[in-house]
Specification:
mainly alpha, DNA polymerase, domain 1
């Protein structure tokens, strides 16, 4: 099998058996394609991949100044590929089992203060389709839902864009969310988000929905399902207006998690709400909270 066929089969495995997102599939297949090209340039076929080739490839990435987080992902890609290729008989054994990923530098995510978060959800977004004094336009109603739900629920932007109308239980104020690995979870949202949703469903969505809209909850200006890029633009612009740190939808997710923990929420409950498979991932937000507490202490305590 040629290199392209191997990569295509690996991509199919990631999609169908591992249920990885398209973003992950693109990243992993890109890494494997680069690895196989590196090996091929040195006369090494897929069947002859060994630990020395893998290490040489990763060393090359380091020499090129690739970020440690990216190299860590490339190690994960190589290990996933190696295990799959050995199981498929493309390799006699898995040379990647002994690879170790570099420890990534822990970078604490930027978060909004509660006051900034409240201000962000109140930002009126100008789409050029509303005269002064008029009621909010359908797109403004939609944008309010984007901001409210991302902050209220802490869901990922892909999960937000994937919501259907039937995924909203307005009586219980919860969302049915399909997360990574096609895992379903139930996530609550508060009264402001419920009010924004009600307005969008009553006065916004009916005005932009088309036959192609299907059951999508959030729509673009032409009636199609909301694109993640547009959701990111909405968040970025709103945060900029209130003078917050530069961030996109994931920044609202970080902020929601941090504010939950600062408000006394149990770490495992936050883990469930965010859809983290590992508690260690959620624990990152305890570090954020500590940093915020230290900053407040340094500013306000007379003996700081």
């Amino acid at each position: 099998m040629d290199q392209r066929g191997v990569v295509d089969d690996f991509a199919t495995y990631l999609r169908l058996e591992k249920a990885r997102s398209e973003h992950t599939v693109r990243a992993y297949t890109g890494d494997v394609r680069a690895l196989l090209s590196f090996a091929g340039a040195r006369g090494v076929a897929v069947a002859d991949l060994d630990l020395s080739v893998l290490r040489a490839w990763l060393a090359e990435q380091t020499r090129r100044g690739i970020a440690r987080t990216t190299i860590a992902r490339q190690v994960s890609s190589a290990k996933t590929f190696g295990a799959w290729a050995a199981r498929e008989g493309l390799l006699s054994d898995d040379p990647s089992a002994r690879l170790q990923a570099p420890k990534a530098h822990r970078v604490l995510p930027h978060v909004l203060s509660p006051e900034q978060a409240n201000a962000v959800t109140a930002v009126p977004v100008d789409h050029g389709d509303q005269a002064i004094g008029e009621e909010p336009s359908p797109m403004q109603l939609r944008d309010r839902v984007i901001l409210e739900l991302l902050y209220a629920s802490g869901i990922r932007v892909g999960e937000l864009c994937g919501l259907d109308v039937d995924d909203v239980d307005d009586s219980r104020q919860v969302l049915r969310v399909i997360g990574k690995g096609n895992k379903q979870r139930t996530v609550p949202f508060g009264r402001p988000a419920a009010q924004a949703l009600a307005l969008w469903l009553r006065d916004g969505r009916p005005h932009v929905a088309t036959a192609a809209s299907g059951s999508a909850l959030l729509l673009g200006a032409r009636g199609g399902r909301l694109d993640q890029r547009m959701a990111r633009t909405v968040v970025t612009n709103a945060v900029e207006v209130v003078g917050g740190p530069a961030m996109g939808p994931h920044g609202l997710r970080h902020s929601a998690a941090t504010h939950l923990l600062e408000g006394g929420a149990d770490l495992r409950i936050v883990q469930e709400l965010l859809g983290h498979s590992s508690l260690a991932t959620t624990q990152l937000y305890t570090h954020v909270s500590v940093e915020r507490l230290r900053a407040v202490h340094a500013q306000a305590h007379p003996r700081s």
